[in-house]
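not sure who needs this but someone in the group chat was asking about Helix-turn-helix domain-containing protein from Haloarcula marismortui so here u go. i didnt clean anything up, its just raw.
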Amino acid sequence: MNNRTLNDSGTYTDKLTEQDVLKAFDYETTAEAPMLTASEITDAVAEHFDTEVSSETVRRRLREMEDSELVASKEFGASAAGWTPLVGPRLSDDVLANIEATESEL
């Protein structure tokens, strides 16, 4: 598995987006458990977004996101890492339109 897929126009696009990763945190984390492993994120994007990628692809995307200060990591032992978001996912167009409509009614 890889991080890119060929779209209908014949160009490669990212299969695992930053927004998918950020939304996975929304689905899977709680106040008591605010961090996820790369494997947990891999499972979450498969379950919630029907996106099949490897844990290595998720780790690579997380490292890119950490460089952009979108997520942070904490090492646990020699090979385990937990990840937490530093920002929230972008709102969908429908949700944003509903919020704007509600605000205009106030």
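also Residues 1-8 have pLDDT under 50 and may be disordered. if thats useful
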